[in-house]
Amino acid sequence: MPTLPPALHPGDRVAIVCTARKASHEELAAAVETLTTWGLEVVLGASTNVAQHQFGGSDEVRRQDLQEMLDRPDIRAILVARGGYGTTRILDQVDFSNFATHPKWVAGFSDITALNCHLLALGHASIHGVMPLLFHQPGGEASLESLRRTLFGEPVSYAVPAHPFNRLGTAEGELVGGNLSMLQTIAGTASDVSTAGRILFLEDVEEYLYSIDRMLVHLDRTGKLRNLTGLVVGHFSAPQDNTVPFGQTPEEIIATYASKYDFPVAYGFPVGHEPENMALVVGRRARLVVEANGVQLLYL
Questions:
Q1: Is 53 an annotated catalytic residue?
Q2: Residue 193 CB neighbour total at 10 angstroms
Q3: What is the pTM of this model?
Q4: What total of structural domains would you count in the chain?
Q5: If both were cysteines, with which of 2, 123, 250, 273 could 205 make a disulfide (CB 3.0 to 4.6 Å apart)?
C-alpha cells in the first residue's frame, strides 16, 4: 500500500513551486494569503516569479526547485502553482531518495498528473487537487475546502448525484488517474503505473473528441481498463470537434470502452478543469458506491 504523508498542522511550512507553466508572485498572492489563514507558513520557490517562455524558468531551475523542496526537512507539503506543460521534462532528473525517507504531501492536477503517478510508482500517495493559481476561482470554494481537509488529515468523503450513464455497483481499491492525455503521455515511462485492482479516475480539457477516443483506445489496448475495480469519470471540459462531427460526446466515448467490462462506473464526478475539482488522494484506498439514487466515494 502506498505511503500516506503525515497530515499538516498549524505552523507547518509549505512550498509553492512551478514544475510546468510560469506563475508570478502577484498571481499567487491570494493563495499565499489563504494558506496563511490556514495557519501555514508559505515559501515561494525559485521557480515562481521567473519565466523561460511559457515555463516557470528553465528545466534546470524547475528541477532544482522541486528537488530542494523535496529534500528540505522543514517543508511539509509542496503545492504546484499551475499546470500547463513541462513536468515530464524534469521528472527523470529528480532524486526522490530523501523524499522516500521523509515523505510529504505533493498536490496538483492536470500536467501534475505525471508527478502524481511518478510518486505512486515509487510507492507514495499524493493529492490530485486545485492548484494555487486557481484557489479563488468563483464556485471553487468546496474544492479548496476539500484540499484543506485532505492536507490536514480531516475526514473527507463525496456524494454525487446520479448520472444516466452510471453503471451500478460497489468497488474498492486504491485511487489512480487524473488527466487522460497525461496518462497516455507517461505510458511506458518510469512514471507509468498499474491500474489493476484500482479505481481509475479520468478528466481532460479542450481535447478533440477523436483524440479522446484515440486515448481511450490506447488505454484499452494497453490493458489499463481490463482489470479495474471501478471507473470515475470527471469533467471533460470544452471538448473540440472537427468540421465533420465525431458523433459522440466524451461520456459516450468512455461508455463505449467501459461497456467491454463489468466494473461500476460513475459519471459526472466533480474532478478536473472546472471550479468543482474535489481533492482526491492518488494511491489511497477508497470505496466507490454507485447506486440508482447517487454515488458515494469514501476512503478506507
A1: no
A2: 22
A3: 0.98
A4: 2
A5: 273
